[in-house]
Fold this sequence. Notes:
Helix content is 39%, strand content 21%. The chain has helices at residues 24-27, 50-69, 72-88, 90-101, 105-125, 164-176, 190-202, 217-226, 239-249, 274-286, 303-318, 338-353, 383-386, 402-410, 425-434; strands at residues 15-17, 20-22, 30-34, 41-46, 132-134, 141-149, 152-156, 179-183, 209-211, 230-236, 255-259, 264-268, 296-302, 357-360, 373-376, 393-399, 417-421, 439-442, 461-462, 475-483. Adenosine-5'-diphosphate (ADP) is lined by residues 156-159, 183, 185-186, 217-218, 221, 237-238, 241, 244.
Amino acid sequence: LLVKLKDPSLAVxxxxxxxxxxxxxxxxxxxxxxxPATGEVIAILPDMxxxxxxxxxxxxxxxxxxxxxxxxxxxAAVLRNLYDLVIANxxxxxxxxxxEMGKPxxxxxxxxxxGASYVEWFGEEAKRVYGDTIPGHQPDKRIIVLKQPIGVxxxxxxxxxxxxMLARKLAPAAAAGCAVVSKPAAETPLSALAIALLAERAxxxxxxxxxxxxxxxxxxxxxxxxxxxVRKLTFTGSTNVGKILMRQGADQIMKxxxxxxxxxxxxxxxxxxxxxxxxxxMVAKYRNNGQTCVCANRLFVQAGIYDAFAARLxxxxxxxxxxxxxxxxVDAGPLISEKALAKVEEHIRDAVTKGADLVLGGNxxxxxxxxxxxxxxxxxxxxxxxxETFGPVAPLFKxxxxxxxxxxxxxxxxxxxxxxxxxxxxxxxxxxxxxEYGMVGINxxxxxxxxxxxxxxxxxxxxxxxxxxxxxxxxxxxxxxLSI
Length: 484
Ligand code: ADP
């Protein structure tokens, strides 16, 4: 890793508690981080647990008030510095990301810029955390509404976007005046550590951002939920773990931000622009090798356009190249783990057993590589229709009517992203309003941006990240009732 970086100091192998960088000798236990494309160990990190988590929470608690007392403009200046540093080091941050996570380098660069956009956005928002005044309910009363930072925030993030998922939490929290104790996924902690180092260089006071490194996420999560200095827990990951955290946080009525799993429908109506729909399906399905929570999981195609869409999509997918993310022009890197690969294989096996046709791909290619795959004739009784595959498999379902497809699309406990293609304006509004999802991409397969509220309904979570709404998740509303 070091030889690939312009600034080798960005390859950090220590956790951060307050002002203190903790190395291997401080915790006794260690864990390895490896490159999923090669299996090679790229870092050995201290393996922390509950006591370090409690110390980090103390450090955050000690730092938070002074940070909150700064003006919005002062906090904005630090976030602007961080944004500038992320942009200046984007190449190195992308290299770290590809090496620990496997995605193609161009996608990694895209993620770094996407993560940075939240730092920029919320830095700007720091100055606009407005309260309100309300006409009094009695002649002598004056009512004032304040927005105050929640306090210490715990943040648990996943491996699929190790930079951006953290940036989306750190930026609004820091902008609002909160302090953060983060726990990145053990598969991909190096991106979080690089952000922590840059945040320190940007002038973020010690203790405002802490990074716990651990393979024992259950213990870390318990401390985060039980420690009454933590006022909010923000989590991006699986619905199952989200439920565990919600249960654990119940004892102290923990405020929760949850970005959980999805089962995104991608609907192509007969009147769609076929080329645009195929293009959209390529990004919505195969970006990040199918490992995003907003990935199209079920492709519903209307009967009149089904065969044409299947043929065009299959042709496009067959052009994809698989390989190490550092090789030029690679479209798909490795999957993250053996477990992820096994799930992809299981979903394909189950679908084929229940009658789907494997029209492209379907094979492992050694290591953690898997061929981009297309299945036709998918039906709602298949696992692939109910569970998030999180891999490069597009199952095509055939439908006849608008009502039928809306009901199939909504027939899931998830409600994160959804997509559909149609040129009929009335249908666009009808379907967009009927879909029980937090986000709807219409004639586009790419919906993520810092200016819009990202989040889900049903079991896909609660809270929103990004946009003018995003900072609300990190402030409390207090009202003052003044008698004059
Ligand atoms: P994925 O299947 O994408 O790895 P997870 O929900 O298992 O999704 O992981 C997302 C994040 O949650 C990771 O940082 C992981 O370490 C953490 N995590 C997993 N289990 C727990 C738990 N019981 N308590 C707290 N964090 C957890």
